[in-house]
Specification:
Strand content: under 5%
Number of strands: 0
Helix content: 55-70%
Structural class: mainly alpha
Order of helices and strands: HHHHHHHHHHH
Main location: membrane
Keywords: Glycoprotein, Membrane, Signal, Transmembrane, Transmembrane helix
Number of domains: 3
GO molecular function: double-stranded RNA binding; RNA transmembrane transporter activity
Pfam families: SID-1_RNA_chan
Family: Belongs to the SID1 family.
Length: about 325
């Protein structure tokens, strides 16, 4: 019911494999995120805050997996994704525990240094992986695995064959550096820093896939670009309003909803919002962000509709 154009039913061997199970997971994660956000607004405490933030990580990781899976349909299985999510949540909890410990300031500094170093090493490793489409080979055409993978960096910059695949690593590195600098300037807590990192990489990966690589390979033919473009533009506009309310909101999750609303939230709401006496500015952020995420999911669902009649052997991998 959300499609504007006639539906072309996909045939086996044609089009980008969709893997709708990931879309179902993304939608379910968004629903659970809504319930958990409501839970910690009704009864704010550190536990509810953790659950709410964790599902933001889940949505970010699933989005990255979905975009990567468009051109690499057999790259990851469910167990690997669950292991990645478990590791992310474990790191997040460890960082927050150190932050809330009065005697662990030195440990927290060391933890953040180790995490940031590991983050950039991971980006470097994934850059080699993406460039080589998952199969890094040495001069003897043997597949490279393990720590030897980092030697592939020298091979890439010495003999760059697919220069367009170097765009994503540069985008990811620049965004990660920007997030580190911004988080230090704003004195962001570890959970917020981790969330900013994921959001930046999701935006960078989507930009790389939809704005750079698809037009570069001659895709988005005829009017197939109209529907996903509408969804993403609407997502950007609504998401911009969401970020505005998130940044300007004086809401305090540590306090009850009534106490939070009493601290200038009503003044910031002005008088335009029809449910002003009940909802505060932070609630408006949730309304807008949920709508923006839904539109983003719809854009991802339709972004490769132009390839539905293209044999998979002719679809470029990037």
């Amino acid at each position: 019911c959300y499609c504007w154009f006639p539906i072309i039913h996909g045939k086996s061997g044609y089009g980008v494999p969709q893997h709708f199970g990931v879309f179902y997971s993304m939608g379910l994660a968004l629903i659970i995120e809504g319930f958990l956000s409501a839970a910690y607004h009704v009864c704010p405490n550190q536990n509810n805050f953790q659950f709410d933030t964790c599902f933001m990580y889940v949505i970010s990781v699933l989005t990255l997996v979905k975009v990567y899976q468009f051109r690499h349909p057999v790259a990851l299985d469910a167990n690997q994704v669950f292991a990645i999510l478990a590791g992310i949540i474990l790191v997040s909890v460890a960082g927050l525990m150190l932050e809330f410990s009065d005697s662990a300031s030195n440990l927290l500094l060391g933890f953040r240094i180790i995490f940031t170093t590991g983050q950039f090493l991971l980006i470097l490793s994934l850059s080699v992986y993406f460039y080589s489409l998952g199969y890094v080979k040495d001069d003897n055409k043997a597949i490279v695995t393990g720590w030897s993978l980092f030697a592939g960096v020298k091979q890439i910059f010495r003999r760059p064959v697919h220069t367009d695949r170097l765009i994503l690593p540069f985008i990811s590195i620049l965004l990660s550096i920007g997030v580190v600098i911004y988080s230090e300037m704003e004195k962001a807590d570890f959970a917020t820093y981790l969330l900013y990192t994921f959001i930046a990489n999701v935006l960078g990966f989507c930009l790389y896939y939809m704005v750079i690589m698809k037009p570069l390979h001659g895709e988005f033919k005829n009017f197939s670009w109209v529907q996903p473009t509408f969804y993403f533009v609407a997502c950007g506009i609504i998401g911009g309003f969401a970020v505005m309310y998130f940044v300007q909101s004086p809401a305090k999750w540590e306090k009850s909803a009534s106490e939070s609303r009493s601290e200038d939230n009503m003044e910031c709401m002005n008088s335009w919002f029809p449910f002003q006496p009940f909802y505060d500015v932070h609630d408006v952020w949730h309304f807008y962000s949920a709508a923006a995420l839904f539109l983003a999911f719809m854009g991802l669902l339709t972004v490769d509709d132009d390839l539905v009649a293209t044999p998979q052997s002719r679809i470029p991998v990037f």
